[in-house]
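Agenda item 2: S-adenosyl-L-homocysteine complex prediction
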Amino acid sequence: MKPIEAASAAQRSNATSGVYGDRLRFWFPVVLFVLVVGAYCWRRGDDWRWYELVWAVASLVQAAIRWPHVQANRVNRVRLQRVDRREQWLMFLVFLGLLCLPMLALATPWFDALNYRLPHWAPWVGTAMMVASLIYFHRAHADLGRHWSPSLEVHEEHRLVTQGVYARVRHPMYASIWIFALAQPLLVHNWLAGAFGVLAFGLLYALRVPREEALMLDVFGDDYRAYMQRTGRLWPRRPR
Ligand code: SAH
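Presented output:
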């Protein structure tokens, strides 16, 4: 393993509080969920759609899967962090597209003019995709363990994970979020709330992955190079 450039004091103090900050508590998403579902039921009355609630439950389950890792990440001592303004903006766009806009679309009538209709099988496909996404998301978090972080960082005890779902694919967690983002427009039938998440995550994925791989190469050198040779980004690499 190559020596790692030390994080500056500013990076360290920023990093130890984590990208999510120290004040985030699990009851925030729970309260948000209760408020959104409450507002949704009140606004829709008898005209509620099961698949929109599937989206809300899936996003709460996603937060619950991630929560223990957010807490564990707080005690990691960061050695290197490459979270710049662009990265922060990208995370904000994803937060908007995969959480805020769909929640507003459910809780308020503000975007109703942008609703669309889909055939009756579409929400079933979306539900199956959500289940697959959450199982994969859980597996990726379990296998990455303490090495998870919400953005581009490496900590003191970091080691390269190449087992479990990481054995054949380098970005299983991003693959699971892709499935979530693509399932969202099948469950929330609104151009803004459904489609914006796909665009936002697509942008984050396209801009972050080359930088994440460069970070891994800087830190793990030939080990990561060899790992890249035998794995694919989102799909297992086809044997030559
Ligand atoms: N891109 C991976 C991990 C996302 S979490 C995925 O989609 O599954 C982001 C952090 O995970 C990065 O900052 C990096 O420090 C860490 N990371 C990514 N791949 C890793 C690996 N194979 N082993 C250890 N840490 C890894």
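Discussion summary: The chain has one domain: 4-230.
Owner for follow-up: CH.
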